[in-house]
Amino acid sequence: MPHQIYRCSSVFICGFILCSLRRLGQSRFTIAISAKIAGRQFLLAGILIMGLLWLFVACMVAQEVDAPRFDGKDTLLRPVGYREWVFIGSSLGLRYDPEAAEKSRPGSERYHNVYINPSSYREFSRTGRFPDGTILVLELASAAQKNEPGLQGSYQDKFVALEASVKDSRRFEDVWAYFSFDEKDGTVKDKAQPFPKKACWSCHNQKAETDHVFTQFYPILRQARPSK
Amino acid sequence: MPHQIYRCSSVFICGFILCSLRRLGQSRFTIAISAKIAGRQFLLAGILIMGLLWLFVACMVAQEVDAPRFDGKDTLLRPVGYREWVFIGSSLGLRYDPEAAEKSRPGSERYHNVYINPSSYREFSRTGRFPDGTILVLELASAAQKNEPGLQGSYQDKFVALEASVKDSRRFEDVWAYFSFDEKDGTVKDKAQPFPKKACWSCHNQKAETDHVFTQFYPILRQARPSK
Fold first, then answer.
1. With an 8 Å Cβ cutoff, is B42 touching chain A?
2. How far apart are CA B177 and CA B74, in angstroms?
């Protein structure tokens, strides 16, 4: 909300200044005191510079820099700054795996931290829907336990994987697409091609409560959406 | 993005029209130079007022509204909007409890989501230090497991507690203070008094790696701070 006020007022004032400049420019011809004019020109130049500077800052603010970025049609560039996005949930060892013969052994499970880009979070809070341009980032961390007197429980130790899902009905035939930025050698890559449909899409399509998003596991999203 | 362009351009045009109306209105007096001068003074005053207004709004935006808010000397008002702050970590059942006879039984453990106010996060990223005005919010969620074919692991179900720590060397004799917003009936209260020193402070003081903050459990903070 402060962003919007700032944006609107700054653009309004830019219009005002530009217009005033025109007016002052015309009045040059009505008053014939050259010293006055020189002084006024200096003032005008100052105001013009301020106005332009201002327009630049307003544009910087107006542009949400949290949209997914692509290389070509469907190659997703690795999101940056997502740790300052909106965190929507963390889970431990949570996954659908119908073919797993037995449950994961304790200690091998991973924490899943999930973030959403802020503009899509705000849209979801307003409408209960995920807009085109929604990007969810899944960052996986190893779970650790310390052998320290009196310390119980597990915590996140090292980040081990980075994945993302994007909703874009104009870009993807199936609306949502899924990506992994993990190289086989354990490093993180800069861009990723979407997974084939059967890898993530099918499960999200079948099991997720709200438009491919597992809101059943994210109390933050359930509380954020407007009540029906 | 198209919305923003539309909004900006429409507000810009509104400013332009309003300004033009003023100009037209004034043109009735163009013959009298004195009126012109008066008009110019009026314009300058207008620009000055708008400039100050702008400065005010810009300051509002620049000033993160994420500082801890107090009632009196040390009663902390419940933080709002913290779910859009910077998430720094989640753990499961993590706590120091030297007197616990045995480990918590699985299922009774809680997830601990921890957030930091964005301005302090940025300061920490720059300097590696937590400034006065740092506030960390700890939100506890119950852990759940679903009996669903193929689903493994646990996830966050319901939020059950809300706590906070604040650093303020001018307000608190011991620099850091700790608060809980939980009523005994399970509701959340609007303000909280600091805990006595032995409740949280001592343990944080003794065990936390970085100035009362358990960075040993928060890989996000370890990665955010500048490398030495």
1. no
2. 9
pLDDT digits (tens, 9 = 90+) for B81-140: 999 999 999 999 999 987 664 555 666 899 999 999 999 999 999 999 999 999 999 999
Chain B contact set for A118 (CB, 8 A): 84
Question: Residues A151-192: pLDDT tens digits?
Answer: 999 999 999 999 999 999 999 999 999 999 999 998 999 999
The CATH number, out of the four listed (3.40.50.12780, 2.40.40.10, 3.50.70.20, 3.40.50.2300), of the domain defined by the range B70-224: 3.50.70.20
Residues of chain A in contact with residue B113, where contact means CB-CB under 8 angstroms, are 87, 90
Q: Where are the domains of chain A?
A: 2-62, 70-224
Q: Are B77 and B70 in contact (CB under 8 A)?
A: yes
Q: What is the DSSP string of A45-110?
A: HHHHHHHHHHHHHHHHHHS-TTS--EETTTEEEPP-SGGGSEEEEEEEEEEE-TT-SSPPPTTS-E
